[in-house]
Amino acid sequence: MTIFSQSVSPCGKFLAAGNNYGQIAIFSSEAKEESKKPVVTFQAHDGPVYCMVSTDRHLLSAGDGEVKAWLWAEILKKGCKELWRRQPPYRTSLEVPEINALLLVPKENSLILAGGDCQLHTMDLETGNFTRALRGHTDYIHCLALRERSPEVLSGGEDGTVRLWG
Predict the structure, then answer these.
(1) pTM of the model
(2) Which residues of 38-56 are buried (b: 16+ CB within 10 A; e: fewer)?
(3) Whether 95 and 135 share a structural domain
């Protein structure tokens, strides 16, 4: 098993870890040292869980071509169900690239996702609509960072570039 992603719950008591089998395991920081097993594990995606982020209420996870939301309040219950799923508009219906990076932009209440289609997609978290796509990379995008003061987004990828988006 390979862990590709992790995210801490808003209360700080739980860690979500996403693996190559599409599962998310939830670990408690209050567990005894000898008990390192997850509190709960659930199947989140058909393929690997490449990235995750937490909001004050949700755990967002992404894998092959889509992002899903889970309510933190429901995650610890057995049989946790996804709240919603979204897929960015890809160039062709046959294209299902992996999503390698998620970034929250709190001031805009938006989520930026990037990955195998070499684009950054911005999603409005209130409506679930994708509002823009930024093109410029020529290969997979693997990381995103936010400069909150500007606000500017930086992206880095397999094309060897770091790009700044305003």
Answers:
(1) 0.91
(2) bbbebebbeebbbbbbbbe
(3) yes
